[in-house]
Amino acid sequence: MTDDTRTQHTVTHATFTIERLYPAPPARVFAAWSDPKAKGSWFAGPKHAYELDFRVDGREVNRGTAPDGTVMTFTSVYHDIVPDERVVYSSTLYGGDTLATASLTTVEFEPDGDGTRLTLTEQGGFLDGQEKPEWREHGTGEWLGALGAYLTRTGEDGTP
Fold first, then answer.
1. Cα–Cα distance between 43 and 33 in angstroms, integer?
2. What is residue 26's three-state secondary structure?
3. Which of 31, 46, 41 shows the shortest CA–CA distance to 81?
4. Residue 153 zone, left/alpha/beta (φ > 0; ψ -120 to 50; rest)
5. Cα(first)–Cα(last) distance of the chain, in Å?
6. CATH 3.40.50.620 corresponds to the domain 12-153
7. Contact (CB, 8 A) for 127 and 5
8. Distances in Å between the alpha carbon of 156 and those of 9, 25, 27, 119, 148?
9. pTM of the predicted model, to two decimals?
10. Residue 26 dihedral angles phi and psi, to the nearest 5°
11. Helix or strand (DSSP H, E) at 34
């Protein structure tokens, strides 16, 4: 006997990698990632509620509102941090009370001449069509661009 009352749920698995070159040493790029004030300035939108506890088992929460009024909540838990070299975290994205994605992300910071080669790899489960892998990859590319703009407009100490 089949249960025809079940709702059809889908999951799309996807992995993407984005590389960026930044004209700053790995310690400075890592600091822009690990300092709550610095990261909040390039990662969170101007009207977002943002918090960062950057340590192993620490959490990051970024809340904002979509154009349709839905509250979007991106939450991460840090699993591995090697200063100036690597960060590994898992994340969820909710639209209201609906889980849209769950993912694992690794960010690597490598010297490249006088700058840094940042390599971000995300492996995700995209649930019930709430978010598409290409949307996440595009959005991630945008905030990595915002990181580059932050590094360009601030000095070695993170001040404008």
1. 9
2. helix
3. 31
4. alpha
5. 67
6. no
7. no
8. 48, 9, 10, 21, 13
9. 0.89
10. -50, -40
11. helix 26-34
Structure tokens at 70: 């839905």
Tell me the two tokens of residue 71: 């509250």
Q: Could you give the C-alpha distances from 146 to 3, 43, 86, 130, 149, in angstroms and in order? A: 48, 7, 19, 25, 5
Q: Tell me the residue type at 120.
A: L
**For residue 1, what pLDDT is reported?**
45
Domain ranges in the chain? 12-153
Q: Print pLDDT tens along the chain (160 aa).
A: 455 555 689 999 999 999 999 999 999 999 999 999 999 999 987 778 999 999 999 999 999 988 899 999 999 999 999 999 999 999 999 999 999 999 999 999 999 999 999 999 999 999 999 999 999 999 999 999 999 999 998 876 566 5
What's the token pair of residue 25?
A: 């040493």
Q: What is the pLDDT of residue 2?
A: 52
Q: How far apart are CA 57 and CA 79, in angstroms?
A: 6
Task: Name the one residue in this structure whose structure tokens are 């006997």.
Answer: 1
**DSSP track, 11-80:** EEEEEEEEEEEESS-HHHHHHHHH-HHHHHHHHS-TT-EEEE--STT-EEEEEEE-TTS-EEEEEEEEEE
Structural tokens at position 91:
């994340």
Please, are residues 37 and 151 in contact by the beta-carbon 8 Å criterion? Answer: no
